Amino acid sequence: VQNGNKDRLSSLSDDILVSILQLIDMNDATRTSILSRRWRNLAPCSFFTIVDLDAKKTSLIDCKTRCISYNDVKPIFLNWAHKVVTSQRAPFINDFRVCFPLSHSDSNCLCTWIKFAMAKDNLTSLCLSFINISGELLELLLSHFHHLKRLYVEGSDDLLDLEIINSFEKLKYLAVHRCTFLRKVEIYAVKIQMNLLSFEFSHSQEDFVCDSMNVNVMHCFAVQLTKLSLHLDLMKLSIYGDPHLLSFPNVKYLELQVIIGHHPYDWSHLNLLRLRYYAEACPVLDNLKLQ
Amino acid sequence: MASSSSSSLSRVVVKSSDNNLFVVNKKVASQSQLLKQCIDNMEEKGTNDVILIPLSNVTSNILTLVLEYCEKHADFADDDNNNQELKQWDHEFLKKFDYATLNSLTMAADYMVTKSLLNLCCQFIADSIKDLTVQQIRQIFDIKNDFTPQEEADIKNENAWAFR
């Protein structure tokens, strides 16, 4: 120990410090640039493998109200995002996340980000919150990311039909939340991939989460599924037709979050019995959670 | 030092910077790429003598720790890296050190090219500084603030999003 009795991490080389900075959150790492002249040069040259652009995790959020005035901070956010994306020199990215409301006039930014993400084609996780992205564009993106394990889409008003066909053998976690106009989710897998899937999925947890009751068809994929989570609005369940459901032979964990609406003279929407179709579709069910 | 049963030919002697000698099983020594490289080089030359490897940068108390780590990991060398017992051991192993020891251990792991130990130390340090204030980090790393107030304000301004 060179510093006598001082208990400090005082003599680590720049290389080691950079490896440490790579392991902490991008914001925390950037904050270290204020430590000293030497440290100022360390953070920008770190290669972040997790890029998380979420306005709520920055100082843009009001400390007291926990709210963000998105219109006011938009230039700052976009400037930051641009800086982060253009200064990235990491050879690979594990996680790329952007969380901010954008309008059509910002499509340039979105293009830059998508290009950035596309350049790192070994992306394993993609989360798009409140980005209006159409099904076609999403499919195009997905067909590019062969290593994608996790896809999270939230609040995309442009997402009408999502068709996932035969393209991503590694995809294990798919979440689609609050896409108001979503009509249909179709997941197909051809035989060769089925083999691959069952092999890959043997010790992992697969989720299929979907908000919309308008989801009609889920093909083949159902065979591997072990966890199914649905958020249902009983008001919107068709009153006469029963939900058209596939069988989920491997689903052990079923989570149903049910919204019961108020309707003055029609009580049929309160009939929880209709939920039995979901349970019946899962013959090996272990765990049922009802909220 | 050696724990598993193997012939005496498969051992090396490692010398610390304060001239203490450690007899190390080859399998244990191979956890360090630096030692492994020395052994490989000697074996290529066909030497049958006991190999002595001097480590001028590592004191004997730190070398003892590195070798303790290598020994444990050599036992698990044939398992995959996700062994839960080993992970638990790793965590307990680092937890007992003060910053000064951690500092020397990290540098020794870097010098001896024991990649997994280096990664472990980096992760441990990253975890322990994650939520600290700038002042606390300066203290732990013994950093002198050499910015002028104006420079400091500029940096804060430039990265406003990151400073809460």
Task: Give a short summary of the structure.
The complex is a heterodimer of chains A (291) and B (164). By secondary structure, chain A is of the alpha/beta class. Helix content of chain A is 26%, strand content 20%.
Could you walk me through the main structural features you see in this protein, from its secondary elements to its overall organization?
The complex is a heterodimer of chains A (291) and B (164). Chain A is of the alpha/beta class and 291 residues long. Helix content of chain A is 26%, strand content 20%. A 9-stranded parallel sheet of chain A has the order 1-2-3-4-6-8-9-10-11, with no helix packed on it. Chain A has a two-stranded parallel ribbon with strand order 5-7. In chain A, β2, α5 and β3 form a beta-alpha-beta unit. In chain A, α4 packs parallel to α5. Chain A is globular and about 65 Å long. Chain B has one domain: Potassium Channel Kv1.1, Chain A. The N and C termini of chain B lie far apart (50 Å). The N terminus of chain B is likely disordered. At the A-B interface, α1, α2, α3 and α4 of A face α5, α6, α7 and α8 of B.
